[in-house]
């Protein structure tokens, strides 16, 4: 196959030549264009001649007061202006990526912190650093740690599960995650609030599937107090399904207090749910910011990490 001529860059095209043709278009004079580039008029004239030779077309036509660009020269100046602008924009974007003002961040979170920390921080970062793009995965720590190992998330808010080798991770602890029991407005336990957990056990419960940390925490809490486990439990990891089932039945839902407050707040969704005045000390084990110990965060991910750490009252690592 016959090869075409080598690309212009390989044949010696320079950005300075493109800037020169733009300046000639702006000023109509080689002398003025040369002054803009801090070079002599003869040097500018030679550069124009080299550019014409490189392209094989006439770019300028002299007249008594200076030069006019030919149709080819005018079009080249238009294209060169766009190319130079794109290069300047690329340089700005590269600098922004390097200092964390641009880029892509994928982070994960368990449900409570996703609303209490990630949401407000993300809202602020969208204003302060609008060039950063985000993906947020809300799931259990068991799922999130797998995504972290696979490189699908840069970091997550959650816990390090017992079944993994914790030495490969770094974690800045934020604190325990308080839990709440909820029912729909008008529920029997809303009308006559229970004095203890015993009165709740005759209703269906909705909480995490078996073996989930929240589920294990609730079951341990009940057993430590000599109480039986709920006989009828619907297991789901979905907050939306929990809210839907609670709002359409007499079931009791279990979710993080941060999530319960967010959904109940009129400023948010105004869900018609009520927190039961029982088990005020029900909490899941402390969570924190989890990263791979040997994997450096990208500048954008580091900026998001610092923002969340500061919002949580921590000093970013």
Automatic annotation (TrEMBL):
Transmembrane segments: none annotated. GO terms for cellular component: cytosol. PROSITE patterns: HTH_LYSR. InterPro entries: HTH-type_LysR_regulators, LysR_HTH_N, LysR_subst-bd, WH-like_DNA-bd_sf, WH_DNA-bd_sf. One of its GO terms (molecular function) is DNA binding. Keywords: DNA-binding, Transcription, Transcription regulation. Residues 13-70 form the HTH lysR-type domain. Belongs to the LysR transcriptional regulatory family. PANTHER family: HTH-TYPE TRANSCRIPTIONAL REGULATOR YBHD, NITROGEN ASSIMILATION TRANSCRIPTIONAL ACTIVATOR-RELATED. This is DNA-binding transcriptional regulator, LysR family. It comes from Paracoccus chinensis.
């Amino acid at each position: 196959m016959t090869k075409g001529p080598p690309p212009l860059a390989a044949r010696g095209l320079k950005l300075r030549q493109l800037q020169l043709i733009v300046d000639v278009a702006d000023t109509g004079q080689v002398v003025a264009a040369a002054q803009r580039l801090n070079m002599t008029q003869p040097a500018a004239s030679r550069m124009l001649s080299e550019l014409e030779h490189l392209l094989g077309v006439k770019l300028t036509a002299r007249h008594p007061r200076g030069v006019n660009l030919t149709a080819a020269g005018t079009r080249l100046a238009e294209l060169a202006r766009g190319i130079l602008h794109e290069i300047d924009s690329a340089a700005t974007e590269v600098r922004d990526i390097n200092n964390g003002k641009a880029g892509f961040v994928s982070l994960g979170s368990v449900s409570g912190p996703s609303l209490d920390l990630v949401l407000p921080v993300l809202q602020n970062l969208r204003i302060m650093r609008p060039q950063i793009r985000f993906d947020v995965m809300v799931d259990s720590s068991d799922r999130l740690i797998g995504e972290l190992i696979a490189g699908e998330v840069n970091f997550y808010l959650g816990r390090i599960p017992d079944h993994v080798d914790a030495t490969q991770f770094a974690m800045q602890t934020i604190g325990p995650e308080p839990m709440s029991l909820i029912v729909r407005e008008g529920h029997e336990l809303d009308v006559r609030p229970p004095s203890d957990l015993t009165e709740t056990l005759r209703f269906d419960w909705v909480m995490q599937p078996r073996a989930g940390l929240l589920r294990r925490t609730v079951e341990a809490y009940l057993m430590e107090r000599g109480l039986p486990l709920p006989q009828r439990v619907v297991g789901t990891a979905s907050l939306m399904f929990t809210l839907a089932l609670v709002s359409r039945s007499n079931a009791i839902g279990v979710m993080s207090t941060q999530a319960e407050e967010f959904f109940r707040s009129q400023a948010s969704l105004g869900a018609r749910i009520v927190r039961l005045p029982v088990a005020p000390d029900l909490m899941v084990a402390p969570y924190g910011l989890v990263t791979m110990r040997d994997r450096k965060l990208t500048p954008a991910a580091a900026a998001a990490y610092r923002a969340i750490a500061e919002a949580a009252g921590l000093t970013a690592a």
